[in-house]
Design goal:
single chain; alpha+beta; six-stranded antiparallel β-sheet; 18 strands; 37% helix; 28% strand
Length: 422
């Protein structure tokens, strides 16, 4: 569990509440937004059953649903077609949108639950439905309301023809509204998805109801310029004097998916850190520790070049001690095989010896001998993590990728944490 604590900071940037549970339904990790949403400090959530966040009237059936998800884990929204509620610390309930995503770390099945307070969305959708159901007498008021919606709104009839859009739709898709009105809604869908859309459209109008679109599938939308973007789409039926229509509320899901991807990557690095730490504990000699460390990060991070150098404080230089298996050809070309010496000051490596993490996004732009050697060998991104025990520098871990600017700040932070464990 100590390793889990290392990733707490990574979750804080998520715009949604994130609750990670294990196969028994025990809460493993939460972020700051979860504290805000539920009113609990995280210390009161970690290790407790997720059922504490479920309203009492649903608690009986939740365990069965949770067991069903553990049996068949997959990425999907929770409670498709239903209104879900969560329970706060003060006993009050809040409607929520919940998406579930399975993840395995260190042999454990975890479920990532992303929760968003759905109160404003439900109010907006209810108000929008009410407004659209009003007579033509209030058509001007209706247009004003649709225009003020924070998301793109596309209203289509049962033939799939676009009846009305708002300003946010113009901004999101790049069309003027006169280019959309009266056109088939398929013009907003990627070409490869158009053939099957008619069947989905008929299915919705045969049983219209408020629900998320996609039934657990990742959805894509298409802009006027042909570019595609991930989208979250909610559907709501509207009975008008002219017949049944469907209101589609469309939101660009790019940032949400990036946040979910970051969570997956962070949990993956957590699992890798746990794996390496366990492997290190099973080995006694330093050489074996170095080899297992380089082997794991080369394969799983991944890296194009990785070596560990030991530090000689008397001669004030670094000596290549261990080269990862996949880095041997590059090491020979660079003259950095085991036993090779690296001058510190002339190569700009003194910061690492002082205990700083060094990150060079583009070695070709640095102008120092060592960075230039790497750039000439096609290694454009460099990170150097100091290896220290009780503030004493024992050496450095040198990690490279071929593509410039390809090591993120999160990956560099992972290397720093790893160096502390080595």
């Amino acid at each position: 569990m100590a390793e889990l604590a290392l990733t707490q900071g990574y979750f804080e940037a998520s715009p949604d509440a994130v609750v990670v549970t294990d196969g028994e339904g025990l809460i493993v990790l939460v972020n700051a937004q979860a504290e805000v949403l539920f009113g609990y400090p995280r210390a009161e959530l970690t290790g407790r059953s997720v059922d504490m966040l479920v309203p009492g009237r649903f608690a009986g059936g939740h365990a069965k649903l949770r067991q069903g998800y553990v049996a068949k884990p997959r990425n999907r929204p929770m409670g498709t077609g239903q209104t879900l509620f969560a329970r706060r610390k003060d006993g009050s309930e809040v409607p929520v949108d919940i998406s579930l995503s399975p993840f395995t770390a260190a042999g454990r099945l975890l479920a990532i639950c992303s929760l968003r307070d759905a109160s404003s969305r439900m109010r907006a959708e209810a108000e929008l439905r009410h407004a659209l159901e009003r007579s033509e007498i209030v058509a001007a008021e209706l247009r004003t309301f649709v225009e003020s919606a924070p998301d793109a709104v596309v209203v289509a009839d049962r033939d799939g023809r676009i009846v009305r859009v708002n300003r946010q739709t113009e901004k999101l898709f790049g069309y003027r509204r006169d280019e959309l009105t009266g056109q088939p809604v398929e013009m907003l869908i990627p070409q490869h998805l158009v053939p099957g859309h008619g069947e989905h459209l008929r299915g919705y109008f045969s049983a219209p109801r408020v629900r998320s679109m996609g039934n657990g599938r990742e959805l894509l939308a298409r802009r006027k310029d042909g570019s595609e973007f991930p989208a979250d789409i909610s559907l709501a039926p509207l009975e008008t004097l002219g017949g049944m229509q469907a209101i589609a509320t469309v939101r660009d899901a790019t940032e949400r998916r990036r946040a979910e991807q970051r969570v997956h990557e962070q949990l993956g690095r957590l699992g890798l850190l746990h794996q390496i730490t366990r492997a290190i504990g099973e080995r006694q000699d330093l050489k074996s520790v170095f080899r297992v460390t380089l082997g794991d990060i080369e394969k799983n991070l991944p890296l194009d070049f990785a070596v560990i150098c030991t530090y000689d404080a008397i001669d004030y230089r670094l000596t290549v001690d261990t080269v990862s298996a996949g880095s041997q050809p590059v090491a020979e070309a660079l003259g950095l095989t085991e036993g090779a010496a690296l001058e510190i000051d002339s190569n700009g490596l003194s910061r690492a010896i002082r205990g700083e993490l060094v990150h060079e996004p583009d070695t070709a732009a640095v102008g120092l001998p060592f960075s230039s050697r790497l750039a000439q060998a096609g290694l454009r991104t460099l990170a150097i993590a100091p290896l220290a025990v009780e503030s004493k520098i024992l050496g450095v871990l040198i990690a490279c990728r071929r593509e410039a600017r390809s090591l993120s700040s999160v990956e560099c932070e992972f290397l720093r944490q790893l160096s502390e464990h080595v």
